[in-house]
Amino acid sequence: MLTEIDHVAIAVHDLDAAIDWYRTALGAEVAHREVISRDGVEEAMLSVAESYVQLITPTRPDSPVAKFLEKRGEGLHHVGYRVPDCAAALESMLQAGATPIDTAPRPGSRHTTIAFIHPKGSFGTLIELVEEP
Ligand code: CO
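That is the input. Now the predicted structure with cobalt (II) ion docked in place:
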């Protein structure tokens, strides 16, 4: 079911500062940058082989990522797993007892199709299923 780790997402306060740090410290370059209005986040995808580090920052105070930063501070936010069929993967996870955040697949950034699974019931890790276009 899993074909790749699509991305590891890290919540940050200052996107430009984080991008600069990843470039300087790790030589990582931005492959894609996008504001996802629906989720109230801006992301920068940094290439790591066939995967990404996804730096995310809130674009408004009621964004879930803003609440995360308030509560937990900067750091690891979620793991995105690449799957061939998001709907099938979501169905399979729900049958296994996972707690959904998204009960049906929806559009993500980069024209992907995504669904989030709640950390509760997933050993404390927010999981995102990612189907490429
Ligand atoms: Co993500």
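The chain has a mean pLDDT of 97.
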